[in-house]
Design a protein that fits this description.
236 residues; alpha+beta; Jelly Rolls; Arc Repressor Mutant, subunit A; 2 domains; 13 strands; 25% strand
Length: 236
Amino acid sequence: MEVTKQRAEGLVPILSAESFEKLERIMYIKSMGKGSRLFWEGDPAAKLYFIIEGRVKTTKETDSGRTLTLYLHQKGDLIGQVDPFKDSVHTFSAEATHDCTVGIIQRSDLEALLWQNGDLAVEFMKWMGLMHRLTQTKFRDLMLFGKSGALCSLLIRLSNSYGIMNNNGIHIDLRINNSEMADMIGSTRESVNRMLSDLKKEDVIEYHDGHVVIKNLEYLRTECHCENCPKEICRM
């Protein structure tokens, strides 16, 4: 099997080697077990978290008590809020879904570093712009083309982030159940069950050892009115 693309590792391709070394100098390293919380919604947004190893999901709680999964972060991603307000708090929570090693950056240290290094500041702005576009495209998927379009877009994003090409199609190298998919598109497990069953009947997807295999990527692109965004944006 071969990976469908050269996976971009979050912040790393955006920063030059020199800039990344400067950022590494202000990190302190912490290991976190599966299920640990990096931070909770409402905690002070005074730190950023760089994922060195492992995976982290960010979630948002609704007023009804439901949890919506915003992102699945992996090695190379930078998590946190860089707000203009000193007393800002996190508007989402972050949980380790695997054992993780993270580099923690104090926001005050980052601000001082950006003041001193113009090149790093410009590159950091590019990362913030990338995150903004990623959020915009996710809102588009959730709001414009119904739950079916949102699910098709989710499958495309999973293929870009975790897809491995084999003889049967694109194997999603991440075990994800229907309830987790429902949390990612703001739907119910029953609705996701029905939509996935329809896609299987249309021979768009199949299952292999508990993993989704995408057999007809063009069908998914048509259903969600794909705009052919770069894979750095069309990701989890």
